[in-house]
Amino acid sequence: VVMSDEQAALFQKYVKSTRVRAARNISGYALPAGASKEDRLAVEGVLKEAFGGLPAELQGTYYPLGGLTSEQEDALQAGGFLFQKPGPMQLLGAAGAGRDWPDGRGIFHNDAKTVLCWCNEEDQCRIIAMENGGDVKGVFERFCSLSHAIKGAAEANGKKLMESPNLGFLGTCPSNLGTGLRASVMIVLPELNKDPHKLEEICAGFDLQPRGSSGEHSAAVGAKWDISNKQRIGFSEVELVQKMIDGITNIIAMEEELAAKAAGGEAAASEAEGSEETAAPVGEESKPQGEGAMEGQAMDDKEGEVAQPAAVEPEAEAAAEAPAETPAEAPAETPAETP
Ligand code: ADP
Ligand code: MG
């Protein structure tokens, strides 16, 4: 992964937090939507053993969901660390992934909450590295260590991950086939936020996807967006993280340009004040982002309303198309760090 000093400085200035996650499942047990109680508990058992075998720098504690108080659960969710219960009107819930909730579900994390694993949500395991700030390389490195360690720990216990030589990692949602990797930054974009649909188009031009500030299909509160790579398959982990870095660099440049224009417009307007009766500002003042800001957007994951299957556009399909031309420079050839 290549991140120039200029990019690092830009990310440090604009990015609130960085997260890299991927889906991992264990061969021999049904995926959560179709799992029996026994499967789910067996998976939890395998994962607990794997967590116990992690190297010192990745060590943490496993918290079964049923053992958390609702205050603890709320706090973890508010911090962006924990999944939500799949609702019956969401594809995941309707597909059966919410049965016997919260049995067999849980979260593993270290004290700093920079290394996390989810147990039996959409996938048997989601591995996550995250931290405040914009050090994408550091977060990705930790993600890679976690990825290798979980695989190694599962194999040490006589298990293997669901992985196909052609498709890569297998998971519940076809959109996650391949690397299963989503590398995201939380970033405040007051100018681009004024037109969420335009923002989505711009992101798509860089093979990126915007989400709201508390997960898929949530609103962008305070103009804070979660922007990540859109594809999971057809590219290496390194290439996907690089696309995110380069795309975000371009998006920040656009945001700065718009902000400069808006400031210029306001300056011109206030100069004209006095001679004109009312000087209308060129750039609208940041208006509050209402609920449902993302309504009507093309949804690429499975969390769309069951009643609107037409809105679901699988990522895998998008990934199969010829990669869109991005204004960003093509990432330099870099060896994949994980298969
Ligand atoms: P995924 O399915 O990829 O885990 P979701 O959209 O379901 O993603 O979001 C999961 C949680 O992770 C949400 O609470 C979201 O706000 C949080 N999150 C995603 N990206 C970041 C980030 N870069 N920094 C902090 N929190 C994040
Ligand atoms: Mg999710």
Q: Which keywords apply here?
A:
nucleotide-binding, 10 strands, binds adenosine-5'-diphosphate, 8-stranded antiparallel sheet, 8 helices, alpha+beta, kinase, 339 residues, disordered C terminus, binds magnesium ion, elongated, Creatine Kinase, Chain A, domain 2, two-stranded antiparallel sheet
How would you describe the overall organization of this protein?
One of its GO terms (molecular function) is ATP binding. It comes from Hemiselmis andersenii (Cryptophyte alga). Belongs to the ATP:guanido phosphotransferase family. This is Phosphagen kinase C-terminal domain-containing protein. Keywords: ATP-binding, Kinase, Nucleotide-binding, Transferase. There is one protein chain. The chain has 339 residues and is α+β, with helices and mostly antiparallel strands. The protein folds into two domains: 158 residues, Glutamine synthetase/guanido kinase, catalytic domain (Creatine Kinase, Chain A, domain 2, 2-Layer Sandwich); 84 residues, no CATH class. It is built from eight helices and ten strands. Helix 1 packs across helix 7 and helix 2 crosses helix 5. The longest helix has 36 residues. Bound molecules: adenosine-5'-diphosphate and magnesium ion (MG). The site of adenosine-5'-diphosphate has 15 residues, from strand 1 and strand 8.
